[in-house]
Design a protein that fits this description.
alpha/beta; 38% helix
Length: 304
């Protein structure tokens, strides 16, 4: 039976632990020359690079397909695209706008095609896996279970990244604070909802200072993602007090570190001095995007 990685929430604790462990092992040729389809409806630097490198490290061939080439529901239906992909590939990783694309694909490919969510409007599971690996490397000698009790503050617009991150960290017993103005705060429901996790505390705050106070980790993301450019002025004004600056970071723990999933808009959601400081783990996050994808692919190949 094909395995899928569509949200963190859908993965069991045992599966997550195995993915983390496989991510940190030396790569092995588990793909045996098989091709893996990488479908990108939106542009990408880190996700495309990390996915391609992970496939090659595991002995496979990455086949990149752009949104213009595949034309989801434009050139042909999602269902017919799924039937075609399942004819050629065992595994397909997709970066799409609409999360419902995954359920539509799964409905027609059955057990023939494993699916990986490389980002959708509601979840970014491979980024969350990389973030956990980054924090475990820094705080607990690489052991994700050692993150229990960690206090992580996410400030700004509560995006797909924040949702997957909060689910992953709460599953490990970490406490998560989401700081955002009410219109940009966590919405209830959907496929990746950290409210449904029973472990680790979840706090919502409309104050950046309150959210960051005493935090071990301060995380932020872009305020203006692709497709939201027309809202730039409105978003910048609403989120201005949630910019991660040296002054805001001073409210966190003295040893607090900073994460950002990139791309960063320096001077907007984060200052350049913070992003480039010794407290920034941003480039370790970038490196662990490859580790995380290796773990995902090895788990999908049913490695133990």
């Amino acid at each position: 039976m094909s395995r899928h990685v569509l949200t963190i929430e859908e993965l069991s604790d045992e599966s997550l632990a195995l993915i983390y462990a496989l991510a940190l092992e030396e790569p092995r040729d588990v793909l045996g020359g098989r091709a893996v389809a990488l479908v990108f409806e939106q542009p990408s630097l880190r996700t495309r690079s990390a996915s391609s490198l992970a496939v090659r490290a595991l002995g496979g061939w990455p086949i990149f397909i752009t949104g213009e080439e595949i034309g989801l529901d434009r050139r042909e239906s999602v269902e017919d695209i799924g039937r075609t992909l399942a004819t050629y590939y065992d595994t397909c990783a997709l970066r799409v706008r609409d999360h419902a694309v995954f359920s539509r694909l799964a409905s027609v490919v059955g057990d023939r095609l494993g699916l990986v969510n490389l980002l959708s409007a509601v979840a970014h599971p491979t980024q969350a896996l990389a973030d956990v690996l980054t924090l475990a490397e820094h705080f607990s000698r690489g052991d994700p279970s050692g993150l229990a009790g960690l206090r992580v503050a996410y400030v700004g617009d509560v995006t797909n990244v924040a949702r997957s991150l909060a689910v992953a960290l709460r599953r490990l017993g970490a406490d998560v604070v989401l700081g955002a103005p009410t219109p940009y705060q966590l919405s209830a429901g959907g496929p990746e909802d950290p409210r449904r996790v029973a472990r680790g505390a979840l706090h919502l705050s409309d104050s950046a200072a309150e959210a960051v106070a005493g935090a071990d980790v301060v995380y932020t993301d872009s305020w203006v993602s692709m497709g939201w450019e027309a809202e730039r002025a409105e978003r910048t004004a609403a989120l201005e007090m949630f910019r991660v600056t040296e002054e805001l970071l001073a409210l966190a723990s003295p040893d607090a570190v900073v994460l950002h999933c990139l791309p960063a808009h320096r001077g907007e959601e984060v200052s350049a001095t913070v992003l480039d400081s010794d407290r920034s783990l941003v480039w370790r996050q970038v490196a662990h995007r490859v580790s995380a994808m290796r773990g995902v692919l090895r788990w999908m190949m049913e490695e133990t």
